[in-house]
Backbone:
């Protein structure tokens, strides 16, 4: 699997695909989680994504399960220095049932918890998981910078942020001499929801054209989640979410099917290849529940989209 440099982290190489560990320890048992992780690393994958809140919404989950399973796997396999570990703070549950936010005490406490559960002394990438407009940006950014200067975090990122907020916080960090957000994680796939649609999944923010332009023009690293729309592209038992139902979707699905047939590939593989080879080039975060599903995704790293086919995909709007 090819590698590329992570923006803001000279010398940090990330893999073409990032393995999403959200369901490890809740919807996916530990044995299966270990098998998926082993196969990912065997294939040359290095970059693994989790969060402190994964997955409190699953019955029986309280948050931290994913990091705990990852920590056990790391302890049994070793090889920490060969991996790029990413986690997040800001979407965990506060005492009042709302999001925990990005206050200084929350960041410090939750970072310590993530490091403890993972059994590591630092994270390679640490995200603000969602916006917190109740906490002054100065407080949030100063605390993240503190974590970097202490060696607990190497690179900072922002997830589920509006483009203007990302630009504003980066400007503030630059003015104060603090570490800026140089990685972005946003929801993005080949199919696009209807304009002005509020996504039903709480906290999810879809990548806008403005955000993609910011990523491209400022040489940021873009990670995309929900890339395969929970199986919608290939599984009859996974109907298309209502907010994706519009004429543009019909055209895109038709062309996607045609391109997949011409390449003897699955629609999932075409979507992943389209993301990885676009402008800006995107690192898909893939969440799978079996080694077989992971193998389908891994095959996309060897799938080349000819210019003519990529143009057909791009123009199906």
Residues:
């Amino acid at each position: 699997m090819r590698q590329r440099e992570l923006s803001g982290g000279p010398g940090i190489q990330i893999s073409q695909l990032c393995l999403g560990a959200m369901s490890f320890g809740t919807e996916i048992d530990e044995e299966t989680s270990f098998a998926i992780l082993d196969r990912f690393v065997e294939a040359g994958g290095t970059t693994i994504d989790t969060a402190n809140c994964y997955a409190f919404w699953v019955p029986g989950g309280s948050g931290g399960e994913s990091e705990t399973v990852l920590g056990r796997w790391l302890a049994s396999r070793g090889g920490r220095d060969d991996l790029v570990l990413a986690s997040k703070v800001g979407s965990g549950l506060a005492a009042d049932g709302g999001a925990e936010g990005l206050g200084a005490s929350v960041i410090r406490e939750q970072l310590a918890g993530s490091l403890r559960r993972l059994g590591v002394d630092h994270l390679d990438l640490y995200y603000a998981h969602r916006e917190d407009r109740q906490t002054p940006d100065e407080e949030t950014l100063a605390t993240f910078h503190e974590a970097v200067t202490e060696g607990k975090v190497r690179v900072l990122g922002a997830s589920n942020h509006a483009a203007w907020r990302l630009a504003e916080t980066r400007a503030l960090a630059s003015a104060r001499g603090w570490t800026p957000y140089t990685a972005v994680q946003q929801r993005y796939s080949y199919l696009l929801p209807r304009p002005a649609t509020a996504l039903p999944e709480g906290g999810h923010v879809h990548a806008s054209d403005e955000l993609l332009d910011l990523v491209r023009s400022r040489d940021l690293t873009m990670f995309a989640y929900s890339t395969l729309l929970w199986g919608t592209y290939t599984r009859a038992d996974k109907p298309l979410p209502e907010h994706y139902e519009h004429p543009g979707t019909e055209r895109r699905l038709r062309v996607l099917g045609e391109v997949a047939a011409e390449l003897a590939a699955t629609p999932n593989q075409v979507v992943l290849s389209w993301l990885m080879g676009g402008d800006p080039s995107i690192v898909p975060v893939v969440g799978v529940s079996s080694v077989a599903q992971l193998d389908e995704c891994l095959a996309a790293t060897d799938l080349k989209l000819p210019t003519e086919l990529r143009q057909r995909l791009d123009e199906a709007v």
Notes: DSSP finds ten helices and ten strands in the chain. Strands lie at 3-5, 13-15, 18-20, 47-49, 84-89, 123-128, 153-159, 181-187, 221-225, 282-286.
